[in-house]
Amino acid sequence: MSTESAESGSGSRMTVTESAAEEACRLMESEGMDTDVSGLRLFVQQGGCAGLSYGMRFEAEPEEDDAVVEQHGLRVFVDPASINYIGGSTLQFEGGLQGAGFHVENPNVVSECGCGESFRT
């Protein structure tokens, strides 16, 4: 398993924490997905009060032009348009009393909405 940041197609770096990789792989395996081929798609879409929001879903394989980041046994697929917004980000998994979930720590964000669900770069 890789423990270092991987290069995306655009040369920007993205990091996946070990806890995020473990949780995503656990969820994919529970859905019968092969983690050697399948992965977590991370994308940016229009929406939210600040203009942009993150989306995530599991996919069986990457698209031809995706950047594929592999760390800690997890493959993350990012399309070329989204990598421009999330290059340099860290994908984390946070648990706690307020609820658990995946979080993107993005150094490109200049402002976020009050609820933290959308952002602007």
Automatic annotation (TrEMBL):
One of its GO terms (biological process) is iron-sulfur cluster assembly. Residues 1-18 have a biased composition (Polar residues). It comes from the Archaea. Residues 1-23 are annotated as: Disordered. SUPFAM superfamilies: HesB-like domain (SSF89360). GO terms for molecular function: 2 iron, 2 sulfur cluster binding; 4 iron, 4 sulfur cluster binding; iron ion binding. InterPro entries: ATAP, ATAP_core_dom, FeS_cluster_insertion_CS, HesB-like_dom_sf. Residues 14-117 form the Core domain. Gene3D superfamilies: HesB-like domain. PROSITE patterns: HESB. This is Iron-sulfur cluster assembly protein.
